[in-house]
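Thread amino acids onto this structure.
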């Protein structure tokens, strides 16, 4: 009551909230947000406009990166991730589509933060607050497929999760995409309002890349794409693209507007092959804990108990008992306390504490915590657990170094099953292959074997690490043997002539407080049939070989043909039938927005408005940021 009478009550409360939030800034990165640096980025020479954007990113600004197809947006995002990660920042790499996410080595935005696929204001929708607290930077690619209300919701949820009034709660957000490519479609006008019309978008430095990287100046394909991008139909150029399909159809990709048509052609082409069919069913790994924990205390409650004590009470008692037993211990983070109901006939629980290294806890000294110095002596954690058990009316039965599977509640497996979002639903489907079938790699495996590489299955043979893509080698081979995943693997001759055997990859699911830090891995082959795809599926990819489009069944959709035609490097790759002027359209609002963006090669962009917000991580690295600005 005394606090409420103070004139500065809101200032004091805000300061207290920010103080409490500071306890969360070192929370773990959920496994699904882990990204690997693309080896092809090292040594990449950036264009002047890419270099300018990278400098802005290093200074902590929220940035929107636009630009036409082939201007190096993906390369730039990978370079930004590499640079910021090297600075020790926690960067989540996401995209609105699975294809684009794979291209970057990340996951979809919806999967990363449990963002609802459809916004429904009539009922609460739970974002993953832990993930929002854990990151310093969020990269989102293909934002033309993200609407205004979704960006505003992201802004609000991040502020709430991080207890901060700063835009996105102090997270640095880097958006990338071309609004003259495919955009969100929906029955409600609010659902289709473009992202650049959102309130949160005002907090971004907005610019576009202008240096072509995929096509040389004067390239006839670049001329065609420039016209399509602005909604201009060139009959003469499309007449040139109306040509016969080559006799050798081995490396032809068909592009369709609808998923049904693409699927039917893939299945028909596979059925035409007379060879034996091989079916690869993705394997699920066992439950595994993510992180390092104290031994797990198995606590039995009285027979008359009908429920466990509240989590808040147990966490409070844990903190008190740890400080009682060991006053020099660092305060335990609430998120690191695991209170899990045990699967027994009566009420019982398993209790453990997550910590950042292999020591039990860090020791606190007057000058701060000593990392790696154990504060708890042997037996003290058991004493803490016994004291907590008594205070909640239970008894400590025993300590487990590893929790027995029969005690882990079924809710863990059920929650993991529910986490199979669009990121994992595709890879969980059985993969049907035959000798001679055309396939596409759908993950970045090495410098030369990447998402979008196409080839033909030449054989099925026992795993041979000498045939794995460079950089995968013996580790994946031992994983195969240890987990007995697949007895044979497909051998693929790529369009480049390289022959590789394609090993399974691992896709993590779980590992969050929601699953008590349990996760399991799914092991699919990073392959798919490669005869045909939808335009939406190839947005963001560069296709190899001949690309054929029969536009007779193309529906009216702004930018559809532009996206389809911009997937190749050369006009010689394109064969296009039945194009009509009505099929080439552009959203005028998107065109006006794109034309109004500052060109990134202009040094003036390096001096954003003084009131443009910056990420909260810049406060921790102020000296480095000031040096960049000098």
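Threaded sequence (630 positions):
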């Amino acid at each position: 009551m005394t606090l409420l009478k103070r004139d500065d009550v809101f200032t004091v409360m805000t300061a207290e909230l920010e103080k409490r939030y500071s306890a969360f800034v070192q929370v773990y990165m959920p496994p699904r947000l882990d990204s690997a640096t693309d080896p092809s980025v090292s040594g990449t020479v950036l264009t002047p406009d890419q270099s300018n954007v990278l400098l802005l990113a290093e200074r902590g600004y929220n940035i929107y990166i636009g630009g036409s197809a082939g201007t190096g947006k993906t390369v730039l995002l990978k370079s930004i991730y590499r640079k910021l990660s090297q600075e020790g920042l926690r960067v989540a790499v996401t995209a609105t589509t699975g294809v684009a996410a794979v291209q970057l080595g990340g996951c979809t935005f919806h999967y990363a933060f449990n963002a609802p696929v459809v916004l429904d204001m009539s009922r609460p929708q739970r974002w993953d607050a832990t993930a929002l607290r854990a990151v310093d930077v969020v990269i989102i690619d293909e934002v033309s497929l993200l609407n205004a209300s979704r960006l505003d919701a992201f802004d609000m949820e991040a502020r709430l999760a991080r207890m901060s009034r700063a835009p996105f709660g102090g997270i640095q957000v880097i958006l990338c995409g071309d609004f003259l490519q495919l955009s969100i479609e929906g029955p409600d006008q609010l659902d289709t309002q473009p992202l650049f019309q959102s309130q949160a978008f005002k907090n971004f430095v907005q610019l576009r890349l202008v240096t072509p990287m995929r096509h040389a100046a004067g390239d006839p394909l670049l001329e065609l794409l420039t016209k399509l991008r602005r909604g201009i139909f060139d009959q003469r150029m499309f007449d040139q693209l109306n040509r016969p399909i080559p006799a050798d159809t081995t490396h032809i990709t068909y592009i369709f507007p609808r998923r049904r048509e693409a699927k039917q052609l893939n299945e028909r082409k596979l059925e035409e092959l007379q060879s034996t069919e091989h079916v690869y069913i993705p394997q699920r790994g066992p439950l595994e804990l993510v992180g390092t924990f104290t031994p797990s205390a198995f606590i039995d409650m009285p027979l008359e108990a009908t429920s466990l004590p509240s989590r808040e009470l147990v966490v409070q008692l844990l903190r008190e008992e740890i400080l009682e037993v060991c006053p020099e211990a660092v305060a335990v983070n609430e998120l690191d306390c695991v209170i899990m109901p045990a699967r027994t006939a009566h009420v019982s629980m398993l209790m453990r504490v997550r910590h950042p290294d292999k020591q039990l806890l860090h020791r606190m000294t007057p000058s701060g915590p000593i990392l790696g110095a154990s504060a708890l002596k042997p037996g003290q954690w058991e004493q803490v657990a016994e004291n907590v058990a008594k205070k909640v009316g239970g008894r400590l039965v025993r300590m487990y170094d590893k929790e027995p599977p029969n005690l882990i509640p079924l809710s863990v497996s059920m929650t993991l099953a529910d986490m199979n979002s669009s990121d994992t639903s595709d890879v969980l489907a059985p993969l049907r292959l035959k000798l001679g079938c055309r396939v596409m790699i759908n993950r970045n495996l090495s410098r030369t074997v990447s998402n979008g590489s196409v080839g033909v299955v030449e054989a099925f043979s026992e795993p041979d690490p000498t045939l794995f893509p460079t950089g995968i080698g013996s580790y994946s081979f031992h994983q195969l043997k240890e987990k007995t995943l697949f007895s044979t693997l497909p051998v693929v001759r790529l369009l480049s002539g390289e022959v590789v055997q394609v090993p399974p990859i691992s896709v993590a699911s779980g590992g969050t407080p929601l699953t008590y830090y349990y996760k399991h891995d799914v092991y699919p082959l990073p392959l798919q049939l490669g005869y045909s795809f939808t335009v939406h599926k190839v947005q963001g990819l560069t296709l190899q070989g001949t690309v054929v489009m029969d536009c007779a069944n193309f529906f009216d959709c702004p930018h559809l043909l532009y996206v389809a035609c911009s997937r190749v490097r050369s006009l010689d790759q394109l064969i296009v039938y039945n194009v009509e002027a009505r099929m080439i359209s552009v959203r005028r609002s998107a065109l006006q927005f794109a034309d109004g963006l500052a060109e990134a090669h202009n040094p003036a962009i390096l001096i954003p408005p003084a009131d443009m917000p910056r990420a909260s991580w810049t406060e921790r690295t102020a000296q480095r940021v000031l040096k960049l600005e000098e």
